[in-house]
Amino acid sequence: MLSPLKLQDAPSTTAPFGFTGPCLRHSRDEEIFGEGEAAEYVYQVISGAVRTSRILRDGRRQIDEFHFAGDYFGIEAGDLHRVTAEAMTDTSVRMVRRGTLSELAGQRGDVARAIFRLTVEGLQRSQDHVLMLGRKSACERVAGLLVDLAERTGASRELDVPMSRQDMADYLGLTIETVSRTLTQLQADGIIAIPTTRHIVLRDPAALRRLHG
Amino acid sequence: MLSPLKLQDAPSTTAPFGFTGPCLRHSRDEEIFGEGEAAEYVYQVISGAVRTSRILRDGRRQIDEFHFAGDYFGIEAGDLHRVTAEAMTDTSVRMVRRGTLSELAGQRGDVARAIFRLTVEGLQRSQDHVLMLGRKSACERVAGLLVDLAERTGASRELDVPMSRQDMADYLGLTIETVSRTLTQLQADGIIAIPTTRHIVLRDPAALRRLHG
DNA sequence: CGTGAGTTTGAAGGGAATCAAGACTAGTGG
DNA sequence: CCACTAGTCTTGATTCCCTTCAAACTCACG
Could you say which of A5, A131, B104, B188 has the lowest number of CB atoms within 10 Å? Predict the structure, then answer.
């Protein structure tokens, strides 16, 4: 389900929201912005993958979203970032100054609508996440992530997994061991194959979707 | 943390978004709209309390948000509602036709900004919810709900709980038994008192906030 | 090849779920 | 007004899924 903005956006040449901003490269695990920092920019992933997360005082981490090419992140209601954003792979990210974006939205109705739509879609993704964390088993969660990854990265069966097992666990509200065991079990059931850690083949996507619920 | 819109909104006289729409009453447990129905309206709670939820095929339910006076709900990116909305108590709700609202937003920048802000705040609440469901213990979740309820309903210590234990459980991703046990434990610890089921006294809000993490 | 981070696998433990009564509470009607 | 009743809530006993703790393995990378 691509948004209008994504469609009109040829990643490396056209700017997000029809506006050209600087484009920064980040290497793997580099922080793009941190929780509590001033939210001066809004970001769009040009290539690569980004995670946004929050950490409790005792170190427990929850990833609230993965962001792929075309996705945007870093929008805040207040002045500060409430999450930390980090590159999961080598990543290219375009930055748009917040004030510039809201000005542009004020002038162009289509831009305002597009931004609003993306935000509502983000909200709905978050609600899906809530349903998963609140009411689904480990197996259903892992299956759901795989299906989601396939859809969002445009892969049909061959999945390039951009995140570590720890990232998966912190997104799914599980431990790394449970994620690993569940993947192994799915492989034993013939539903997926795991040729390498970062490469998963969906042998039976329909079964995965059924598990996903 | 009240939004600008809420502040300028004297619940029973002024309309949401500076616009007057019809105002409907719903009695307890009545459905306001259902998952899968056409999303023709956006709603604002005038008085009472509303829950929005989703149900899996096998009956598991997840409440994704409680809505109180001033809050709005029912915004969708697509044409259909993705959640079901029900009145938790006798409730008065104002309806604004979706097209009307987007027209108004197109004409008045302040309205567009206010709606956008409310949506981003909803997204942030959802992210808090994700963190809670993914990484917090039963005790931390219940404490968090109580603190949140107190803040949002403007109660300092005397909490009128508008929802059933089942609603609490389905919001917190727990079972009704665990919610009940946890509340009993908090009472035993002297942190809260439960004179009646729907009335909870926060005897040590600081301790609750500490548990909330 | 050696090294170490990341991952998988194994064994044991724990927190919340499930199953099952029992105690309230709020309506209802006599 | 008060017994009756259905629904809600609480409490108890047991189970189970996931976590925790621990160790072995794999595979990038120098």
Answer: B188
Which runs of consecutive H residues, i.e. helices, occur in A31-108? 98-107
Q: pLDDT at position A156, please?
A: 86
A185/chain B closest Cα distance in angstroms: 22
Asked whether residue A180, judged by its CB, lies under 7 Å from any atom of the DNA or RNA strand C, the reply is: yes
| Closest residue (CA to C1') to nucleotide C9 in the complex | A181
pLDDT: is B156 or A169 the higher one? A169
pLDDT at B1 over 70: no
Mutate to test the interface with B, among A123, A171, A178 (most CBs of B within 10 A): A123
- Where along chain A do the CATH 2.60.120.10 domains lie? 4-133
Between chains, do B75 and A127 touch, taking CB under 8 Å as contact? no
The helix or strand, by DSSP H or E, that contains position A163, with its residue range, turns out to be none
Residues A17-29, mean pLDDT to the nearest whole number: 82
Across all residues in chain B, what is the average pLDDT?
Answer: 90
Torsion over CA: B93, B94, B97, B103 (sign): negative
Residue A154 exposed, middle or buried by CB count within 10 Å (0-12, 13-18, 19+): exposed
Contact A25, A92 (CB under 8 A): yes
A127–B64 C-beta distance less than 8 A: yes
- Residue B50 forms beta bridges with which residues? B67, B87
Question: For the structural domain made of B4-133, what CATH number should be given?
Answer: 2.60.120.10
Model-level pTM? 0.92
More confident residue, A87 or A11: A87
Query: Is a pLDDT exceeding 50 seen at residue B79?
Result: yes
Q: Under a CB-based contact definition with an 8 Å cutoff, are residues A49 and A66 in contact?
A: yes
User: Rounded to whole angstroms, how far apart are CA atoms B53 and A169?
Assistant: 25
User: Is the domain B136-212 a CATH 1.10.1660.10 member?
Assistant: no
Report which of A205, A80, A74, A96 is spatially closest to residue A151, judged by C-alpha positions: A205
pLDDT at B109: 87
pLDDT recorded at residue B21: 76
Residues of chain B with CATH 1.10.10.10: 136-212
| Chain A CB within 8 Å of residue B112 CB | yes
Instruction: Tell me if chain B has a CB within 8 Å of the CB of A133.
Output: yes
Residue B13 has pLDDT above 50, yes or no: no
Instruction: Give residue-wise pLDDT tens across range A175-203.
Output: 999 999 999 999 999 999 999 999 999 99
Cβ B133 vs Cβ B173: under 8 Å: yes
